[in-house]
Design brief:
The complex is a heterodimer of chains A (139) and B (163).
Chain A: H1 11-25, E1 29-36, H2 43-46, E2 54-67, E3 76-82, H3 83-92, H4 98-105, E4 106-111, E5 114-126, E6 129-138
Chain B: H1 2-19, E1 24-27, E2 30-33, E3 35-37, E4 53-62, E5 71-81, H2 92-106, E6 111-116, E7 123-131, E8 135-136, E9 140-142, E10 145-156
Parallel strand pairs in B: 3-4
Antiparallel strand pairs in B: 1-2, 4-5, 5-10, 6-7, 7-10, 8-10, 9-10
Helix pairs in contact in B: 1-2
The chains are: A alpha+beta (139), B alpha+beta (163).
Protein backbone atom coordinates (compact mmCIF):
# COMPACT_ATOMS: atom_id res chain seq x y z
CA UNK A 1 0.00 0.00 0.00
CA UNK A 2 1.30 3.43 -0.89
CA UNK A 3 2.46 5.65 1.95
CA UNK A 4 0.54 8.82 2.58
CA UNK A 5 1.73 11.49 0.13
CA UNK A 6 3.34 9.01 -2.27
CA UNK A 7 2.16 9.16 -5.86
CA UNK A 8 0.36 6.02 -6.95
CA UNK A 9 2.20 4.55 -9.96
CA UNK A 10 0.38 5.24 -13.20
CA UNK A 11 -1.72 8.03 -11.74
CA UNK A 12 -0.09 10.51 -14.11
CA UNK A 13 -1.66 8.66 -17.03
CA UNK A 14 -5.06 9.14 -15.45
CA UNK A 15 -4.43 12.88 -15.44
CA UNK A 16 -3.40 12.69 -19.09
CA UNK A 17 -6.59 10.81 -19.96
CA UNK A 18 -8.58 13.40 -18.02
CA UNK A 19 -7.03 16.28 -19.97
CA UNK A 20 -7.70 14.41 -23.24
CA UNK A 21 -11.34 14.02 -22.22
CA UNK A 22 -11.51 17.75 -21.46
CA UNK A 23 -10.11 18.59 -24.89
CA UNK A 24 -12.60 16.24 -26.57
CA UNK A 25 -15.45 17.86 -24.67
CA UNK A 26 -14.47 21.13 -26.35
CA UNK A 27 -15.41 19.76 -29.75
CA UNK A 28 -12.64 17.27 -30.60
CA UNK A 29 -10.80 19.76 -32.80
CA UNK A 30 -7.87 18.67 -34.95
CA UNK A 31 -4.72 20.78 -35.28
CA UNK A 32 -2.27 20.30 -38.12
CA UNK A 33 1.43 20.94 -37.69
CA UNK A 34 3.56 21.13 -40.83
CA UNK A 35 6.95 19.47 -40.43
CA UNK A 36 9.92 19.97 -42.72
CA UNK A 37 11.30 16.81 -44.22
CA UNK A 38 15.07 16.40 -43.98
CA UNK A 39 16.75 18.60 -46.57
CA UNK A 40 19.13 17.24 -49.16
CA UNK A 41 21.91 19.36 -47.64
CA UNK A 42 23.35 20.17 -51.06
CA UNK A 43 24.31 23.60 -52.37
CA UNK A 44 20.84 24.34 -53.72
CA UNK A 45 19.20 23.90 -50.33
CA UNK A 46 21.98 25.88 -48.61
CA UNK A 47 21.49 28.75 -51.06
CA UNK A 48 17.74 28.77 -50.56
CA UNK A 49 17.06 27.56 -54.11
CA UNK A 50 15.40 24.30 -53.14
CA UNK A 51 12.40 24.62 -50.79
CA UNK A 52 12.21 21.91 -48.16
CA UNK A 53 9.45 19.40 -48.64
CA UNK A 54 7.02 19.05 -45.77
CA UNK A 55 4.60 16.63 -44.17
CA UNK A 56 1.38 17.57 -42.42
CA UNK A 57 0.85 16.06 -38.99
CA UNK A 58 -2.80 16.12 -37.87
CA UNK A 59 -3.18 16.01 -34.08
CA UNK A 60 -6.29 15.38 -32.05
CA UNK A 61 -7.72 16.03 -29.47
CA UNK A 62 -6.81 19.69 -29.41
CA UNK A 63 -8.26 23.15 -28.97
CA UNK A 64 -7.53 26.35 -30.84
CA UNK A 65 -7.85 29.70 -29.13
CA UNK A 66 -7.75 32.96 -31.09
CA UNK A 67 -5.45 35.37 -29.28
CA UNK A 68 -5.33 39.14 -29.44
CA UNK A 69 -3.77 40.18 -32.77
CA UNK A 70 -0.19 41.42 -32.68
CA UNK A 71 0.55 45.16 -32.67
CA UNK A 72 0.89 45.12 -36.46
CA UNK A 73 -2.48 43.40 -36.88
CA UNK A 74 -1.34 39.84 -37.53
CA UNK A 75 -3.56 37.02 -36.34
CA UNK A 76 -2.29 34.99 -33.43
CA UNK A 77 -3.55 31.67 -32.10
CA UNK A 78 -2.82 29.29 -29.30
CA UNK A 79 -3.17 25.60 -30.07
CA UNK A 80 -3.61 23.38 -27.02
CA UNK A 81 -2.65 19.86 -28.02
CA UNK A 82 -2.97 16.58 -26.21
CA UNK A 83 0.37 15.18 -25.13
CA UNK A 84 -0.98 11.69 -25.85
CA UNK A 85 -1.41 12.58 -29.53
CA UNK A 86 1.88 14.43 -29.86
CA UNK A 87 3.95 11.80 -28.05
CA UNK A 88 2.49 9.07 -30.26
CA UNK A 89 3.61 10.92 -33.40
CA UNK A 90 6.99 11.84 -31.90
CA UNK A 91 7.62 8.15 -31.24
CA UNK A 92 7.23 7.45 -34.96
CA UNK A 93 10.00 9.98 -35.60
CA UNK A 94 12.06 8.53 -32.71
CA UNK A 95 11.99 11.91 -30.97
CA UNK A 96 12.22 12.38 -27.22
CA UNK A 97 12.67 16.14 -26.82
CA UNK A 98 9.40 17.19 -28.43
CA UNK A 99 9.73 20.93 -27.80
CA UNK A 100 13.16 21.10 -29.38
CA UNK A 101 12.00 18.93 -32.27
CA UNK A 102 9.04 21.17 -33.02
CA UNK A 103 11.14 24.32 -32.75
CA UNK A 104 13.67 22.93 -35.21
CA UNK A 105 11.54 20.97 -37.65
CA UNK A 106 8.06 22.50 -37.61
CA UNK A 107 7.32 25.05 -40.31
CA UNK A 108 4.23 26.10 -38.40
CA UNK A 109 0.61 25.42 -37.55
CA UNK A 110 -1.86 25.15 -40.42
CA UNK A 111 -4.93 27.20 -39.54
CA UNK A 112 -7.67 27.69 -42.13
CA UNK A 113 -5.17 26.94 -44.92
CA UNK A 114 -2.75 29.55 -43.56
CA UNK A 115 0.65 28.51 -42.28
CA UNK A 116 1.23 30.31 -38.98
CA UNK A 117 4.77 30.50 -37.64
CA UNK A 118 5.37 29.05 -34.20
CA UNK A 119 6.36 31.62 -31.57
CA UNK A 120 6.37 29.70 -28.30
CA UNK A 121 5.90 26.15 -27.09
CA UNK A 122 5.16 25.39 -23.47
CA UNK A 123 4.27 22.16 -21.73
CA UNK A 124 1.90 21.53 -18.83
CA UNK A 125 3.18 18.75 -16.65
CA UNK A 126 1.15 17.00 -14.01
CA UNK A 127 2.72 14.48 -11.67
CA UNK A 128 5.88 14.58 -13.75
CA UNK A 129 4.15 13.69 -17.01
CA UNK A 130 3.55 15.89 -20.06
CA UNK A 131 -0.20 16.43 -20.41
CA UNK A 132 -0.74 19.44 -22.65
CA UNK A 133 1.35 21.30 -25.21
CA UNK A 134 0.56 24.98 -25.76
CA UNK A 135 1.77 26.36 -29.07
CA UNK A 136 1.34 30.03 -29.92
CA UNK A 137 1.63 30.88 -33.60
CA UNK A 138 1.41 34.06 -35.67
CA UNK A 139 0.46 34.38 -39.32
CA UNK B 1 23.72 41.35 -55.59
CA UNK B 2 22.45 37.80 -55.04
CA UNK B 3 25.46 36.46 -56.94
CA UNK B 4 27.72 38.29 -54.49
CA UNK B 5 25.95 36.82 -51.49
CA UNK B 6 26.02 33.33 -52.94
CA UNK B 7 29.64 33.53 -54.06
CA UNK B 8 30.78 34.79 -50.66
CA UNK B 9 28.92 32.01 -48.85
CA UNK B 10 30.13 29.25 -51.16
CA UNK B 11 33.74 30.48 -50.92
CA UNK B 12 33.63 30.47 -47.11
CA UNK B 13 31.86 27.12 -46.98
CA UNK B 14 34.36 25.43 -49.31
CA UNK B 15 37.28 26.92 -47.40
CA UNK B 16 35.81 25.71 -44.10
CA UNK B 17 35.67 22.17 -45.47
CA UNK B 18 39.38 22.45 -46.29
CA UNK B 19 40.45 24.22 -43.08
CA UNK B 20 38.44 22.25 -40.53
CA UNK B 21 36.54 19.33 -42.09
CA UNK B 22 35.28 18.23 -38.68
CA UNK B 23 33.37 21.47 -38.14
CA UNK B 24 29.99 20.28 -39.33
CA UNK B 25 26.43 20.79 -38.15
CA UNK B 26 23.13 18.99 -38.66
CA UNK B 27 20.58 21.46 -40.00
CA UNK B 28 17.17 20.31 -41.27
CA UNK B 29 18.24 16.71 -40.94
CA UNK B 30 21.31 17.11 -43.16
CA UNK B 31 24.93 17.21 -42.02
CA UNK B 32 26.86 20.00 -43.71
CA UNK B 33 29.71 22.42 -43.06
CA UNK B 34 28.89 24.56 -40.02
CA UNK B 35 28.13 27.74 -41.89
CA UNK B 36 24.73 29.04 -42.98
CA UNK B 37 23.09 32.14 -44.38
CA UNK B 38 20.22 33.17 -42.14
CA UNK B 39 18.00 34.34 -45.01
CA UNK B 40 18.42 31.00 -46.82
CA UNK B 41 17.26 28.90 -43.88
CA UNK B 42 13.66 27.97 -43.03
CA UNK B 43 12.14 30.71 -40.83
CA UNK B 44 11.61 28.61 -37.72
CA UNK B 45 11.63 30.04 -34.24
CA UNK B 46 14.50 27.81 -33.27
CA UNK B 47 17.51 29.41 -31.60
CA UNK B 48 20.72 29.53 -33.56
CA UNK B 49 23.01 26.54 -33.11
CA UNK B 50 26.31 26.66 -31.29
CA UNK B 51 29.63 26.23 -33.10
CA UNK B 52 28.11 27.38 -36.39
CA UNK B 53 28.87 30.49 -38.42
CA UNK B 54 25.73 32.41 -39.35
CA UNK B 55 25.89 35.05 -42.08
CA UNK B 56 23.54 38.04 -41.88
CA UNK B 57 23.53 40.45 -44.78
CA UNK B 58 23.22 44.13 -43.91
CA UNK B 59 23.46 47.52 -45.60
CA UNK B 60 24.45 47.81 -49.23
CA UNK B 61 25.56 51.12 -50.67
CA UNK B 62 27.86 52.67 -53.23
CA UNK B 63 31.40 52.19 -52.04
CA UNK B 64 32.78 55.41 -50.59
CA UNK B 65 35.50 57.17 -52.54
CA UNK B 66 35.01 54.82 -55.46
CA UNK B 67 34.82 55.64 -59.12
CA UNK B 68 32.13 53.83 -61.09
CA UNK B 69 29.55 51.46 -59.69
CA UNK B 70 31.53 49.59 -57.04
CA UNK B 71 29.22 48.72 -54.17
CA UNK B 72 29.83 47.71 -50.58
CA UNK B 73 27.64 45.39 -48.54
CA UNK B 74 28.06 44.58 -44.85
CA UNK B 75 28.03 40.99 -43.70
CA UNK B 76 27.85 40.12 -40.02
CA UNK B 77 29.08 36.66 -39.16
CA UNK B 78 27.89 35.54 -35.73
CA UNK B 79 28.76 32.45 -33.79
CA UNK B 80 28.70 31.18 -30.27
CA UNK B 81 29.77 28.19 -28.26
CA UNK B 82 29.21 26.78 -24.81
CA UNK B 83 32.25 24.56 -24.60
CA UNK B 84 31.86 20.96 -23.64
CA UNK B 85 29.85 19.38 -20.87
CA UNK B 86 32.78 17.08 -20.02
CA UNK B 87 34.81 20.18 -19.13
CA UNK B 88 31.91 21.84 -17.29
CA UNK B 89 31.79 24.47 -20.05
CA UNK B 90 35.11 25.85 -18.84
CA UNK B 91 36.59 25.43 -22.31
CA UNK B 92 34.12 27.78 -23.96
CA UNK B 93 36.76 30.48 -24.29
CA UNK B 94 39.08 28.04 -26.02
CA UNK B 95 36.28 26.89 -28.29
CA UNK B 96 35.52 30.51 -29.18
CA UNK B 97 39.20 31.02 -30.04
CA UNK B 98 39.04 27.94 -32.26
CA UNK B 99 36.01 29.40 -34.05
CA UNK B 100 37.87 32.73 -34.39
CA UNK B 101 40.84 30.92 -35.93
CA UNK B 102 38.66 29.04 -38.40
CA UNK B 103 36.90 32.23 -39.41
CA UNK B 104 40.13 34.16 -39.93
CA UNK B 105 41.43 31.27 -42.03
CA UNK B 106 38.38 31.04 -44.27
CA UNK B 107 38.24 34.80 -44.83
CA UNK B 108 41.71 34.70 -46.36
CA UNK B 109 42.47 35.44 -49.16
CA UNK B 110 39.89 38.24 -49.08
CA UNK B 111 38.54 37.65 -52.57
CA UNK B 112 36.79 35.08 -54.71
CA UNK B 113 35.34 34.75 -58.18
CA UNK B 114 31.77 35.95 -58.57
CA UNK B 115 29.43 33.31 -59.94
CA UNK B 116 25.73 33.12 -60.63
CA UNK B 117 24.22 30.19 -58.73
CA UNK B 118 20.59 30.84 -59.67
CA UNK B 119 20.45 27.81 -61.95
CA UNK B 120 21.92 25.56 -59.29
CA UNK B 121 25.38 25.29 -60.80
CA UNK B 122 27.96 28.09 -60.79
CA UNK B 123 28.22 30.25 -63.89
CA UNK B 124 31.19 32.61 -63.85
CA UNK B 125 30.29 36.28 -64.15
CA UNK B 126 33.84 37.22 -65.09
CA UNK B 127 34.59 39.36 -62.06
CA UNK B 128 35.64 38.97 -58.46
CA UNK B 129 34.32 40.11 -55.15
CA UNK B 130 36.63 41.16 -52.35
CA UNK B 131 36.24 42.11 -48.73
CA UNK B 132 37.79 43.98 -45.83
CA UNK B 133 39.75 42.47 -42.99
CA UNK B 134 37.31 41.18 -40.39
CA UNK B 135 36.49 43.27 -37.33
CA UNK B 136 36.09 40.94 -34.36
CA UNK B 137 33.73 42.61 -31.93
CA UNK B 138 33.98 41.98 -28.20
CA UNK B 139 32.87 38.54 -27.09
CA UNK B 140 29.36 38.47 -25.62
CA UNK B 141 28.94 36.20 -22.65
CA UNK B 142 25.53 34.82 -21.74
CA UNK B 143 26.38 31.84 -19.53
CA UNK B 144 26.94 29.16 -20.59
CA UNK B 145 27.31 30.69 -24.03
CA UNK B 146 30.01 32.96 -25.30
CA UNK B 147 29.86 34.33 -28.80
CA UNK B 148 30.95 37.04 -31.12
CA UNK B 149 29.85 39.10 -34.12
CA UNK B 150 32.37 39.71 -36.85
CA UNK B 151 31.75 42.34 -39.49
CA UNK B 152 33.14 42.20 -42.99
CA UNK B 153 32.37 44.59 -45.84
CA UNK B 154 32.12 42.88 -49.21
CA UNK B 155 32.79 44.89 -52.37
CA UNK B 156 31.30 44.01 -55.72
CA UNK B 157 30.11 45.38 -59.01
CA UNK B 158 26.35 44.97 -59.36
CA UNK B 159 25.00 42.94 -62.23
CA UNK B 160 22.67 45.77 -63.26
CA UNK B 161 23.69 48.75 -65.37
CA UNK B 162 23.39 51.97 -63.40
CA UNK B 163 23.10 55.34 -65.07
Amino acid sequence: MADQGEIIPGSAYAVRRFTDALLRSGGDTEVTIRLSNPSSGDSNSQLGLEPPTASDMPLSPALVKALKPTADGKRQIEAVISATALIAVAKQYQVQDIVNWLRREAQGVVYYDNLMRIDTITVDKFLGTDCLYHITATE
Amino acid sequence: MQATKDSFYVALRDRLVAVDPSRTVTLDGATRPAIAVIENEPPTGAPLLCDTFYLHWGNAKLAPLSVGTLMAMDCTISYCTKGSVQNANLDRGRDLASLDNDLLAILSPPQTAKCDYSTGSPVSLGSTIFWTRPVLNAAKSTPPYVGRDVIVTVFFYPEVIQS
